[in-house]
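From the methods appendix. Each design record in this collection lists the tokenized structure first, followed by the designed amino acid sequence. Records were kept in a plain field format so they could be parsed without special tools. The example shown here is representative of the layout used throughout.

RECORD:
FOLD TOKENS (219 positions):
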């Protein structure tokens, strides 16, 4: 149901049409009870804290995979992509197709990803530097690792691995404005939003310090 708006955008190439369809769906509650993944958007702070606590208690390699899922908010194929993709050391506005990372003094690393598949967009993510380095040091990171992590998140926190992305968005929304959280989730639509994500480093600094506050609150 939540893709109907996108579908009409695709059919008509008219963003207003997409908005109208989404408004109709929301106005008449047509999506109520259909999209179970939405449910963690409307929960209280204790729910989120408890889920995060259970997730972070998972130890070992699988715990590491869970943390990467939770802290990056990336989709599964994006997590595998950032593990395997070669790093580029040129940070001067390089436009090659490798990954570019910026290490911040506050212990966070911004990973510029720029990976787009149809309407799935991924501009960048931000991870604690230590976590990023540990993740990159794993020699092999196959899809099956995420499947195992999924079984554990279900068992320990009653969450599917794909729901870590929703949880991440929920947590980000608590300290960022909607535009920033949407860019982080790859939902930025306009050219200006893309520009803002990739070039406005002051804004990125704001996002980073916001994230630092959030994660220290939960860790
Ligand atoms: Zn490059």
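DESIGN:
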């Amino acid at each position: 149901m939540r893709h109907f708006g996108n579908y009409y955008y695709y059919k008509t190439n008219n963003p207003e049409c997409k908005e109208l369809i989404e408004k109709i769906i929301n106005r008449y509650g047509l999506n109520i009870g259909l999209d179970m993944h939405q449910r963690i958007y409307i929960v209280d702070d204790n729910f989120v804290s408890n889920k995060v606590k259970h997730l972070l208690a998972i130890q070992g390699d699988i715990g590491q995979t869970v943390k990467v899922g939770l802290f990056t908010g990336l989709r599964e194929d994006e997590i595998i992509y950032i593990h395997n993709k070669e790093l580029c050391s040129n940070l001067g506005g390089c436009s090659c197709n490798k990954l570019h990372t910026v290490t911040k003094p506050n212990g966070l690393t911004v990973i510029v990803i720029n990976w787009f598949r149809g309407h799935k967009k991924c501009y960048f993510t931000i991870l604690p530097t230590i976590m990023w380095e540990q993740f990159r040091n794993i020699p092999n990171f196959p899809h099956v690792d995420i499947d195992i992590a999924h079984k554990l998140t279900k068992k320990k926190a009653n969450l599917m691995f794909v729901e870590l992305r929703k949880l991440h968005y929920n947590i980000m929304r608590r300290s960022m404005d909607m535009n920033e959280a949407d860019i982080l989730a790859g939902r930025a639509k306009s050219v200006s939003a893309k520009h803002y994500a990739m070039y406005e480093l002051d804004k990125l600094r704001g996002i980073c310090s916001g994230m630092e506050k959030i994660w220290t609150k939960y860790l």
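APPENDIX NOTE: Residues 42-218 form a domain with the hpI Integrase; Chain A fold (CATH 1.10.443.10).
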